[in-house]
Amino acid sequence: MNPLENKVALVTGAGSGFGAGIAECFVEAGATVGLLDLNLAAAADVASRLGSRAIALEGDVTSESSMRGAVDLLEGDAGALDIVVNNAGIGLPPTAMEDVSEEDFQRLCDVNMRSIFVCSKIFVPTFKILQQGVILNIASTAGVSPRPNLTWYNASKGWVITATKSMAIELAPFNIRVNALNPVAGETPLLATFMGEDTPEQRAAFLQSIPLGRFSTPTDLGSAAVFLCSDSASLITGVALEIDGGRCI
């Protein structure tokens, strides 16, 4: 079965980590996928491994003009979009809340929150006209079960969860579904950022908080994303699904 057969999807931040895993699972599920990243070389490297239905795109998720240009290229090649995955995000190293610089705080807000606002301005009007569409936002367990010294990151992911639920309610009359995934820290380039440093001792301490005893993987996120973006989940909207090995229980 190919649950995303003939679908066209855009995945932001697809040059590595969860975004690359989601893109790979989407291609395996039959979709044509635009892999958008600020680092075009990284997106192209992932796309080269995924075949002809993977299209590398360069774009800045905080810029409406940049995103519109990338989307025009994707739709020119593959047709109208059916699915948008707002995956692009950044973290901050563990820092006392009052010691985070204004520049780092603003960048966190721009990438983790403003990007979803920008993408909504681009995609929602078309989805309303078509009376269909799926939006998937990548939040975090940090928005549900915050860790100390990550306050502003926690808050940004809590914002994503609330925005997801509000978007779902507002867009339901147009048959547009909006959901989120809440991954626990995973085997991605951001892991060392969240832990402060990536050492065997730090990993062991963090894993003690995960009942199933392992980090999330890009494939874990990709498999869940395929389901939520497929017709099998046609009655599911406004959900923030935890992919966390039981950490938030």
Task: Tell me, rounded to a whole number, the average pLDDT.
Answer: 95
Task: Extract low-pLDDT stretches.
Answer: none
Structural class designation: alpha/beta
User: Any idea what the radius of gyration is?
Assistant: 17 Å
DSSP helical segment count: 8
The neighbouring-strand order within the major sheet is 3-2-1-4-5-6-7
Task: Work out the strand percent.
Answer: 15-25%
What's the number of extended β-strand segments?
Answer: 7
SSE string = EHEHEHEHEHEHHHE
How would you sum up the global shape? globular
**First-residue to last-residue Cα separation:** 33 Å
Helix content range = 40-55%
Largest sheet: 7 strands, parallel
Account of the 3D structure:
The chain has 249 residues and is of the alpha/beta class. It has helices at 17-28, 40-50, 64-78, 102-130, 151-171, 191-195, 200-207, 218-229; strands at residues 8-12, 32-37, 54-58, 83-86, 133-138, 176-183, 240-243. Strands 3-2-1-4-5-6-7 form a seven-stranded parallel β-sheet, sandwiched between helices. β1, α1 and β2 (32-37) form a beta-alpha-beta unit. It is globular.
Properties at a glance:
alpha/beta; 249 residues; 45% helix
Q: In summary, what is this structure?
A:
The chain has helices spanning 17-28, 40-50, 64-78, 102-130, 151-171, 191-195, 200-207, 218-229; strands spanning 8-12, 32-37, 54-58, 83-86, 133-138, 176-183, 240-243. It is of the alpha/beta class and 249 residues long.
